[in-house]
Amino acid sequence: MHKLGARKMIFFNTPLIGCFPLARTIAGGVIRKCGDLLNEEVQIFNRMLNHQIQFLSSSLPQSRFIIVDYFKILQEIIDNSREYGFEVVDHGCCGTGMVEVAVLCNKLSPLCPDVTKYLYWDSVHLTEKGYSIVVDHALEDMMNILV
To answer: Model confidence at 147, in pLDDT bands (50, 70, 90)?
Structure first.
C-alpha cells in the first residue's frame, strides 16, 4: 500500500472474540461466559500488531498510522451494555443466537423480536446498532489522535 502511495492508514485491532456468542457457546461453559483464553490470545496478537505498527512508523516517518482499539471499544460496549440500550450481549438475534453465522441466518431462521436490543446479529457479527456504536467510538479515537 505504501508503494502505491498510501501515507495515512488506519488499522483496527482484533476485537474481543472470546465474547462472541459462538465463543461463549464453545468455551464459556453452561453459563456462557466469555472465553478468557481466546481474549488473552487476542491481546497477545494486538500487542504484536502495536509493535509492528510502531516499527512501520519509525521506518516510514513520512507516513501516519493509527490503530483503533476495537478490543477496548467492544469491551466497553459489553461491560456497559445497558447504557448503550442493549439487553442481550451473549447471543445473537438470528436463530438460537449461539452458533448460527452468515448463511445459517436466512429467511428460514427465526429472529429476535427487537434487533435493537441485541449487540450481535448472529454468533459473530454485530447488529447495525452495534457497528454504529463501534464506528462512533472509532471516529472519536481517530479524531483524538489526528488533532
So the answer is: low
Q: Would you give the end-to-end CA distance of the chain in angstroms?
A: 24
d(CA 144, CA 126): 25
In total, the chain counts a number of residues equal to: 147
Strand ranges in the chain using DSSP code E only, listed in sequence order: 8-12, 64-68
Write the pLDDT tens digit of every residue in 32-78: 999 999 999 999 999 999 999 999 989 987 888 889 999 999 999 99
CB of 121 closer than 8 Å to CB of 105: yes
Phi/psi class of residue 69: alpha, beta or left (left: φ > 0; alpha: ψ in -120 to 50)? beta
Residue for cell digits 438475534? 93
5: left (phi over 0), alpha (psi -120 to 50) or beta: left
What are the structural domains of the chain?
Answer: 8-146 (3.40.50.1110)
Q: How far apart are alpha carbons 110 and 93 in whole angstroms?
A: 8
Please state the pTM of the whole predicted model: 0.90
Q: Are 80 and 71 in contact (CB under 8 A)?
A: no
Cell reading at 120: 450481535
